Structure formats: C-alpha cells, structure tokens
Amino acid sequence: MSALVLLVVGLPALSALFVVCSGAGRSERSARVSTCAAAAAFLIACALAIEVGVHGAVSAVLADHEGRQIVGLYANRIIVVLLLLVCGVSAVVQAFACGYLRGDLRAGRFFAGTSLLTAATAAMVSAASIVGLGVAWTLAGVALCALLNMYSGLPAARQGLQRTALSFAIGDCALWAAIVFALVRWGNLDLRHLSGQARALTADPDAVSVFSCLVLVAAMARSAQLPLQRWLPATLAAPTPVSALLHAGVINAGGVLLVRLGALVGTSRPAGILMFCVGGATVVYGTVLMLTKPDIKGSLAHSTMGQMGFMIMTCGLGAFAAAIFHLVAHGMYKATLFLGSGGAVHRQLQHAKAPPRASQSAGASALTALVAAGMAGAAMLSASAVLHPHASGTSASGTLLLFGWATAAATTWGILRRRVSALTTVAGVALMGAGTWAYVGWLRLFTGFLSVDLSSAGQNPAPSWLLAPVVLVLIFVAAVRLSERRLRSLHDAVYVRALSAGHVLRAREPRVRREARPVASPWALLQPGSGTARP
C-alpha cells in the first residue's frame, strides 16, 4: 500500500510535466489532463484514508544500510485528512478553471503551475523527514509565485508578486535556518517518530525554543500573520481560480507546518506564548479590516487572514486536532466563496436596489444583542454538556467553545435584527442551534479520530489567561459598532483607521518617454489652427 502515497504526489507531478511538454497550443487538452490527474489523486487519497484508518500508517521511505533516512513519504491519520483537502480543493478549482480560463492564452501556464503546486503541497504534507518537508515547502512557494505571475503585464500583479516573493523569502530563510539548526544539533529528524524523539530532544529546552521560534516565523510568513501580512491583500489581481487555491490551500501551510512539528514545537512555552500572541493580534486585525472592506475579494482576503490567526492561536494553546478541523473547514468554505464570488456580487447589487431597512434604536439593539448572546450560550453549553462533556476540562477546548459561542451569538444577532416574520426568525434561530450542536459533535469526532497521532503534542501550551486581552478587544469593537449613535466619533475613527490600514498602495504606471519637440514662441500659439487659441 506504500504505492498509494507515492501516487498521490506523483500524479500531479506527472501532470505538470505533461502540460509543460505539450505547450500552450493544447491548453484544452492540458486542462483535461490536469483536472483528471487531480481528481484521480483525490480518489487515491480516499483509498489511502481507508487503508490508514483500518490498518494504520503507511510509509514509502528509502534508507541506507545504517538505517538513516534519506527520502520518503509517510501517511497517518493527520496526513490523510490534509491530503484529502489538498487534492479535493485542487480538483474542484481546476474543474472550475476549465471554463473560467477557456480561450485564455495563459491557461496552460495555470494548469502547469497548479499541478506543480498540488504535488509540492502533497509532498510537504506527507514528507517523512524534515529536509524533505523543507524542499517541498520551498517548491510550493515557487509554484505559487509562478501562478501569481500569470498576468505580469498588470502593475498590480507585479506588485503582488514582489510582496509575496519577499515575504516567502523571509519565511523560507527562517525555515531553512531551523532545518540546518536541527541537522547540526539532532540530525535529520524522522517525522514518522517525532513524538518518540521529542522526549529526548526536550532535554535541551533552549535548543527546542530556538528551533520552534524559527519554525513559527516561517509559518507567520506563509500564513500572512502580523507583521508579515501585507502580501496577501496585494494578490487580489490574480485570477479567481488562483485566489481560490491560495486562500483555500497555500495559506494553510503555516498551520500544517506547526501541526506536523507539533510534537516538538508544542513543548516550548516561549513559542506557545508567541504563537498565541501573534495569532490573537492577527485575529483582531483581520476581523476589523474585513468589516470595513467594500470589495468582496478584499473582504475575503482579510477574513482569511483572521482565520489563519485563529488557527495559529489554537496551535499555541496545544489544540492541534482542533486546528486541523478549522483548517479543513476553512479550506472548503473559502474555496466555495471565491469560486462563487461573482454570484455574491450579483446578489449584493440586487440587495443594494432594495429599500433600506429601518434601523433599531440603541436600546433595542442592545437588548437584541443580549438575547442573542443568551440563546447562543444556552445552545453551546447544552451541546458541549451532551456531546463533548470533557471539553471544558482543558484551556484549549474552553477557548474553542468561547469563540464558538461568540460566532453563534453574532449569527443569532444578525437573524434577530432582520425584522422578518416570526416563522423565519424561529427557523433561523433553530438552524443556529442545530449548527452549534453539529459543530461540537464534529469537533469531538475529529479530535477522537486524530487523537492517536496527536497524543504527545502540545505538552506545554500557552496559558489560557492570555485569551482575556483578545476577548476584551473584540468586545470593545462590538460595543463601538453597537453604540454607533452615542460613540459616533469613536466609531468613525476606528472605521477610517481600519479602512486606511487595509488599503494596498498600487504601483505607479511606468512613465512613457516622449520625443523632444522644439518649443514654439508664445506668439505662434495664438495663431489660428494652433489648437490653443481661445475664441
């Protein structure tokens, strides 16, 4: 069964080679081959998931006579879930691009780059050694930069490529510094047995902290975390399929890196605190900017930034299974939003033509918010007590339930403020309650499925009291938005600052040289036919 994990990586790689060799003149044939290869890789990943779930982990590793690992791929329960996400999103996006890019002369470049990106990401997810992970990590970044360079004639596209390449270079340098540090200190780490090795490696906590902080810098750069977030909004000039691949797949690489090295990174308290602080700051930053962006792709980009911050913050708390759960959910959700952004724009235009709704008073709005918070809290507490009774016993699970409650409260508040009929209000609230129960239930099932491979990860997470500043800032933002009439000046100041922070300065158009002309005398300009004399 080791051939399965090789095929998941090999089929997209062969597809990329075929598209490059076939040339741009057969773009439709290249599109079909690339899409079929991604779909076949997804089906093989499904078979691999069944094999791993029933019989255990699968590995395909080449080693020398002394048993030292040279190169190879590996699949356990965590990896098969990530492979399903990578191959599934790639197949759907490429199928969408077959129609979206039909007739485009650069379509062949897109499918070649997408196949290479899929193969590199799958190899990064399933790498059995830290050196192999680093090679695949860098190759995935190069493939994404090639996709962002599809329309290199646009100044905005060139600027997005430059910012992305600079941020990725910083992250890659940090990751390779961590790899070289690990090679010198511990040798080539075998990621198949990293949990067993972590007990011996943590005897030197300073070395583990240095390694973990370097890995965190690489994750911050690839997942657009503060202060390396400016590249993500600058990539909006890319075609919609590229944006879908970026926001549903590539941006998750930071979380994947932390999860794959979680058995070692999770034991460092300084790295855990730094992960939590960086992720929490990015959650607030991305959420506030997302609320102010007037364009749909800009709003989705900052939403992705905030979601990646939540994922990094969850890793800082040691909840790696929950991080993977939100990573998979975000990947599928964001791919759907980007591929359906055209329909969303059409619905927004229809909504703008409708008559405005009557706004609630400040007192009625505050009462509605309190009722929504109470209903969401009751749904979350009942679901956690029945479906996940041990969730409140750990700080990580309690944090997730708290953020889940905040999301459910915001959804319920939006439903109650719509002022529709009583039947639709009851149906919306019932849907919110069912969604809360489904979230808690799926989170428990996901955690149980991955607990075998995450049993020793996150032994020294960040303290839960660090959540207080993040919650206070979010409550402050909600209060400013809720009390808009009384705090009009503060509301306007926050809105303008957020709107300015989310604005991307575009590159200037290149100046066109004009031929030097002899300067005419002022009297000649007044002659008839000169075009400058006024009647």
Pick out its properties.
535 residues, Four Helix Bundle (Hemerythrin (Met), subunit A)
Description of the molecule:
β1 and β2 form a beta hairpin. With 535 residues, the protein is mainly α. It is globular, with a radius of gyration of 26 Å. The C terminus is likely disordered. Among the domains are: 128 residues, Four Helix Bundle (Hemerythrin (Met), subunit A); 140 residues, no CATH class.
| Unreliable sequence segments | 509-535
Coarse shape = globular
Oligomer: single chain
Overall mean pLDDT score?
A: 78
Strand order of the largest sheet: 1-2
Helicity level: over 70%
Structural class: mainly alpha
Rg from Cα:
26 Å
Distance between the termini: 88 Å
